[in-house]
């Protein structure tokens, strides 16, 4: 049986100019352990599996004018270590080595003034397999490592055939290595108009290289306009059999469309099992921030990378959806429902969209000057386990209840434990390590470095192989394994192995035609679990709390953030089964409201006396007047101004996390 500490594969690598230094590399179920032994000293560290996204076998690329790798070194000369895919026609036939590239993203401390912050950095570990004279044998060894790593990264046991030691040539060996289980395929929606209009370029430059590293196949759909993604998801008959996950490269608006499209399918139960990934490309990126925040990932340093890693790692964590009912609609919401101040700012500032995020600040000031209050009724059902703290309106779970709930949800493998994972890796590990030819202890590869510490040694991007100085080229996210920059003028150059590109009319990409929408909008049906609430026209249950009065706002939140800088419900987690009502009653002064709007970015607003944070499982809002200048929004989308009620459907969707 394989356990966390069991060594599955082990090799010793050497570096040419360090005759007394050996590098023992072990693959365990915990990760890749690298141990340096030099002059009786030993240093080791482990690259955790959680931080590895994939690995590939490469061959050295043939040089145009030079065929001999044994030529004398030209001092100071630098050239790229160019590698090509194992099946490329450009391989250097004189080099029978196989280079195993292992791609990882390590959590590191920032430098200088940012030393207290953490961020993820790419680290490519290169192992050169060259023990045998024949390419096939070196390839067999490298493939063994590649397949084993891919199984482990997918959290699957490595088949024994992959781990069997083979010291002699066995032509059938490769046939014994099963496919490493490519059981995922992504449907990616990119809204080319979201945010500042750069989502498509951002996807090509920063996300596609990661998908390539992880060998994740995907199909891309550029949305043509409002409701395109919703219609696509609703109509695509083979959606659940073709795709494992749906990825949105946009803001929260497109996620809202996709979720509601899924719930418009008769097979909604199965459709809700698809993983939902979000990569922030819009102006409202509340879900992307909340998902990373719940895991303790350093989102702010690199939101796109952190979110793309969630997609690549592909753990499906439960996420609550909220069933929403208005007089004319049933909707599903994942972020928030708003009435009053915040919704007014969000909707009315649309007219300033061209100035970017500043629009919220400017319109906040405008709304404070022309402050509005709304008369109506708020009714709610308190979430189980919460009780009133003294006479105050703030409700808190008792400590033991909170612990019990946290333990329960952690035990359910929800992926949202709120802790930064401990990270033992603190050194750069970008040097290719080489297996000796014929396993002789004589090292043939050297690291061109005079650095003394292992950390510095590994971070030097320059190597000498057989007297030739090579410069490491794999590194930045948008560099191909062969060292060239990804061409960004075509999706095809991005090399997704099996991607088809659906697109819209007049696009230059391949287009997949969907059947005509034979359903009129009236015939579109919203499915989903049955409601437990009385109809909107019926009174609320007698156990509910009812407040009549004037409100500045009622904002219902189920994620911690409703925008990257809007930390509105600090206690909310994606799967806690709770809706947090943030309520401000009329009577709050403009200066208090300004403090509130300023405090929302840090979460300090919850300590203000004017703010009530009420954990509920269901609520109803009934504005007194149906004619109002105010707005009601669901996930930032405007809905009819009038009565609305909502209830939590715990863990109904699946969101992609690390
Ligand atoms: N090609 C397109 N052109 C115009 N609108 C589109 C297109 N594709 C999708 N949309 C619409 O754009 C809306 C806003 O997108 P999204 O929320 O993802 O980005 P955003 O920039 O954050 O927008 P917002 O600030 O409104 O949240 C979506 O609701 C969707 O209906």
Number of helices: 15
What kind of sheet is the major sheet?
Answer: 15 strands, mixed
Class by SSE composition: alpha+beta
- Tell me the distance between the termini: 26 Å
Residue share in β-strands: 25-35%
Shape: elongated
Total beta strands: 30
Arithmetic mean of pLDDT: 78
> Which ranges are low-confidence, i.e. pLDDT below 50, for 5 or more consecutive residues?
66-79, 389-394, 397-414, 417-431, 436-515
Domain DAGKc: 181-328
InterPro entries: ATP-NAD_kinase_N (IPR017438), Diacylglycerol_kinase_cat_dom (IPR001206), Lipid_Phosphate_FormReg (IPR050187), NAD/diacylglycerol_kinase_sf (IPR016064), YegS/DAGK_C (IPR045540)
Keywords: ATP-binding, Kinase, Nucleotide-binding, Transferase
Organism: Cloeon dipterum
Secondary structure elements and pairings:
Layout: E1 7-14, E2 21-28, E3 31-38, E4 41-48, E5 52-60, E6 79-80, E7 83-85, E8 98-109, E9 118-129, H1 135-153, H2 160-163, H3 173-176, E10 186-190, H4 199-213, E11 218-222, H5 228-235, H6 239-242, E12 245-250, H7 252-262, H8 268-271, E13 275-280, H9 286-295, H10 303-313, E14 315-326, E15 330-333, E16 336-340, H11 341-348, H12 358-369, E17 374-382, E18 386-388, E19 395-397, H13 399-411, E20 432-434, E21 445-447, H14 454-459, E22 462-465, E23 468-471, E24 501-502, E25 545-557, E26 579-585, H15 590-599, E27 611-623, E28 632-634, E29 637-639, E30 644-657
Parallel strand pairs: 6-23, 9-20, 10-11, 10-12, 11-24, 12-13, 13-30
Antiparallel strand pairs: 1-2, 2-3, 3-4, 5-7, 5-8, 8-9, 14-15, 14-30, 16-25, 16-28, 17-25, 17-27, 18-19, 21-22, 22-23, 25-26, 26-27, 27-30, 28-29
Helix pairs in contact: 4-10, 5-7, 9-10, 11-12, 12-15
The structure holds adenosine-5'-triphosphate (ATP).
GO molecular function: ATP binding; lipid kinase activity
InterPro entries: ATP-NAD_kinase_N, Diacylglycerol_kinase_cat_dom, Lipid_Phosphate_FormReg, NAD/diacylglycerol_kinase_sf, YegS/DAGK_C
GO cellular component, one term: cytoplasm
């Amino acid at each position: 049986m394989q356990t966390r500490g069991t060594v599955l594969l082990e090799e010793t690598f050497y570096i040419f100019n360090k005759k007394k230094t050996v590098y023992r590399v072990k693959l365990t179920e915990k990760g890749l352990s690298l141990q340096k032994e030099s002059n009786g000293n030993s240093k080791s560290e482990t690259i955790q599996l959680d931080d590895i996204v994939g690995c590939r076998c490469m061959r050295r690329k043939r040089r145009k004018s030079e065929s001999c790798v044994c030529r004398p070194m030209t001092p100071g000369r630098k050239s790229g270590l160019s590698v090509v895919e194992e099946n490329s026609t450009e391989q250097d036939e004189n080099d029978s080595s196989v280079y195993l590239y292992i791609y990882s993203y390590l959590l590191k401390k920032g430098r200088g003034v940012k030393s207290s912050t953490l961020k993820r950095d790419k680290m490519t570990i290169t192992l050169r397999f060259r023990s045998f004279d024949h390419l096939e044998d070196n390839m067999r060894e490298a493939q063994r490592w590649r397949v084993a790593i891919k199984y482990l990264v997918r959290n699957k046991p490595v088949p024994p055939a992959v781990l069997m030691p083979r010291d002699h040539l066995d032509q059938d060996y490769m046939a014994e290595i099963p496919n490493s289980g490519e059981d995922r395929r992504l449907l990616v929606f990119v809204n080319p108009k979201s945010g500042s209009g750069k989502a498509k370029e951002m996807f090509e430059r920063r996300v596609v290289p990661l998908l390539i590293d992880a060998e994740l196949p995907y199909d891309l759909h550029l949305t043509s306009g409002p409701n395109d993604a919703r219609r696509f998801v609703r109509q695509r008959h083979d959606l659940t059999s073709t795709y494992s996950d749906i990825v949105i490269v946009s803001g929260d608006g497109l996620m809202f469309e996709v979720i509601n499209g899924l719930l418009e399918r008769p097979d909604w139960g199965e459709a809700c099992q698809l993983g939902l990934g979000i990569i922030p490309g819009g102006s409202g990126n509340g879900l992307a921030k909340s998902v990373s925040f719940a895991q303790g990932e350093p989102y702010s340093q690199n939101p796109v990378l952190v979110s793309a890693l969630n997609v690549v790692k592909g753990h499906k964590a439960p996420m609550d959806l909220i069933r929403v009912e208005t007089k004319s609609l049933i909707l599903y919401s994942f972020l928030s429902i708003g009435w009053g101040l915040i919704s007014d700012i969000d909707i009315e500032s649309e007219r300033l969209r061209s100035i970017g995020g500043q629009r919220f600040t400017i319109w906040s000031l405008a709304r404070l000057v022309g402050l509005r209050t709304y008369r109506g009724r708020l009714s709610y059902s308190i979430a189980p386990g919460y009780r009133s703290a003294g006479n105050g309106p703030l409700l808190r779970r008792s400590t033991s209840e909170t612990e019990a709930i946290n333990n329960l949800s952690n035990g359910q493998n929800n992926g949202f434990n709120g802790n930064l994972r401990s990270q033992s890796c603190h050194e750069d590990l970008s040097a290719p390590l080489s297996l000796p030819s014929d396993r002789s202890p004589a090292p043939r590869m050297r690291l061109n470095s005079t650095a003394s510490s292992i950390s510095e040694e590994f971070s030097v991007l320059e190597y000498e192989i057989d007297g030739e100085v090579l410069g490491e080229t794999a590194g930045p996210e948008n560099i191909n394994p062969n060292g060239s920059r990804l061409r960004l003028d075509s999706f095809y150059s991005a090399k997704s192995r099996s991607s088809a590109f659906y697109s819209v009319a007049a696009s230059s990409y391949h287009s997949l035609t969907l059947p005509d929408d034979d359903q009129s909008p009236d015939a579109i049906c919203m499915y989903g679990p049955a409601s437990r609430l009385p109809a909107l026209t019926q009174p609320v249950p007698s156990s509910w709390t009812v407040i009549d009065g004037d409100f500045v706002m009622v904002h219902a939140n189920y994620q911690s953030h409703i925008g990257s800088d809007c930390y509105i419900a600090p206690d909310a987690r994606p799967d806690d089964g709770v809706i947090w009502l943030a309520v401000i009653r009329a009577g709050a002064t403009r200066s208090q409201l300004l403090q509130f709007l300023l405090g929302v970015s840090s979460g300090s607003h919850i300590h203000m006396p004017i703010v009530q944070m009420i954990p509920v499982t269901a609520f109803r809002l009934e504005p007194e007047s149906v004619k109002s200048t105010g707005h009601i929004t669901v996930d930032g989308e405007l809905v009819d101004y009038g009565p609305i009620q909502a209830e939590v459907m715990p863990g109904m969707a699946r969101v992609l996390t690390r």
